[in-house]
Amino acid sequence: MSRRNATPLTREDSSDVDMEASNQSSANSVCCGGGSRKLKAGLRVLVKMIENNKYEMAEIQKPRPSKTVRGGYDYYVHFMGYNKRLDGWYSEDLIDMKQIYVGRKVTNRKESVQVSPGDDNRKKVNRIGQTNVEYVLATEADLQDEEEDTPAIRKARKKEELEEGRRRNIDMIVLNGWRIRPWYFSPYPEALTRTEGIYLCSWCLSFWPSVYAMKSHMSVCPLNGPPGKKIYEKDNLSFFEMDGGVDDVYATHLCLLAKLFLDHKTVYYDTKPFFFYVLCEKDEEDCYNIVGYFSKEKCSADENNLACILVLPQFQKKGYGRFLIEFSYLLSKVEQKTGSPEKPLSDLGLLSYRSYWLYAICEFVIGHYEHNGTADSMKKYMSKELNLHITLPKLVEITRIKRDDLISTMTSYGIARQNINGTQIILSLSMVDKYFKNKKEKVHVDAKYLKWTPPVLTEGVASGSRAADNQRRTESFLGLSSLAED
Ligand SMILES: [Zn+2]
After folding, report:
1. 200 CA to middle of ligand 1, Å?
2. pTM metric for this prediction
3. What is the pLDDT of residues 433-478, one digit of tens each?
């Protein structure tokens, strides 16, 4: 059977089992007088979080009639102290309906420190005399309160309308056999958001309302991977370079997919000012399936060599985020230009970058010595640490990493010392060991396999980019994100 007729759906099958289990347990939901009690937005409840299977405190954002239990409700909830990517629709059987909390204003009589639950552990100091909202078990009267048309309620409704545009609107996507739960809102056509999920073509990323529609498209899809030019291939990993002005349909499909995993207010629709570098895994039928990508402005006033970066969730924690970053610097080396990612960096983006920048500095330092690829072979040059005098311009020239990024990395890892002879880099034995381990065990870009010459830009393209640059200063684009614990 050819690949095109054999869309792998094995991973979907296991999800179907989960869905069945969830439907069965829906029958246990709490009912009051023939239907469930409808809880208002703003109340807090304990909800069994899908990700950790534990009850966590969550705030109800919006109720809607249940799709599976007649007279019941589903609730869109935000887990207190957790990233919004974990927000989602939960049925009543996953909510502890016996403990419902309502906010009450209280004035502090003594100072206290409150640690927020969840994964951010933020501390908040409550001072004497300050008014706070405290959550207490709701009484029957609280729950029966009809919504009045007070200014506070009108304000809450307005806030909810604004939030609506940011709320995750798609429950599931299917891509190359993976069922993926999106994290954030993406402006796919509204009709598709009412289906149980969206089915994407693995190669052109076009979107379909059913598995049948997707399969029938894939049997005639003219592509077997991203459009554009294959500029790198080693083992099963390949990079395709795509011009957003030429392959604008694919680029738009890619941005829609990326937006599902990037929490930004707006999607940038004009793909023309960008090149896209799509990383793919080649399968046994010579089809190229997307792993992630980064985009790069054709002409960046800020010398950015990367605008947006994404590794799809099913490929995270495999080192692909760093692989994409390494590739972006390889292109800068060929171009003989120094580059930097578009700022600001997200927390996770900064972690991935710092890790790559440190690796590049170690590579530069260790490259000055003869070794056989093990920390042991370096011991003859060091007792406890390796010291090397460098000049920063040389380090910039070799790595193509911007000076400021190098300095911030050296400062944060405490590996540089300034003296009368210039800058001295000091690497501990454990750092040298970690470098060799990383080099051996993680996936790295092999420059020998790059077949690329920097694209020549015409005047029109360059001026288009500058216009985009200005627009982007006021409009947020797909920023750096989604490198989760790479
Ligand atoms: Zn297709």
Report:
1. 8
2. 0.70
3. 999 999 999 999 999 999 999 988 765 555 444 444 434 332 333 3
d(CA 418, CA 389): 10
Please give the domain boundaries of the chain with CATH numbers for all domains: 42-164 (2.30.30.140), 224-474 (3.40.630.30)
Q: What is the 3-state secondary structure (H, E, C) of 343-388?
A: CCCCHHHHHHHHHHHHHHHHHHHHCCCCCCCCCHHHHHHCCCEEEE
Q: Worst-scoring range by mean pLDDT, 102-106, 115-119, 380-384, 394-398? A: 115-119
Quick one: which of 238, 255, 360 has its CA closest to 308?
Answer: 255
**Tokens in use for 318?**
């495999």
Place of tokens 């709320």: 167
Average pLDDT over residues 84-113: 84
The active-site residue out of 326, 342, 475, 485 is 342
The residue whose two tokens read 């991973």 is 11
Cα(480)–Cα(6) distance, rounded to whole angstroms?
35
d(CA 349, CA 480): 6
21 pLDDT tier (thresholds 50, 70, 90): very low
Instruction: Please identify every residue whose CB atom is under 5 Å from ligand 1, which is an ion.
Output: 201, 203-204, 221
| 342 is known as an active-site residue | yes
Tell how far the Cα of 6 is from the centroid of ligand 1, in angstroms.
Answer: 14
Helices (H) and strands (E) in the chain, counts: 12, 22
- The single residue listed with the structure tokens 């003296």 is 419
Other C-beta atoms closer than 10 Å to the C-beta of 322 total 22
Preceding omega of 344 cis (within 30 degrees of 0): yes
3-class DSSP state of 254:
helix
- pLDDT tens digits, residue range 184-239? 888 899 888 888 899 999 999 999 999 999 999 999 999 999 999 999 999 999 99
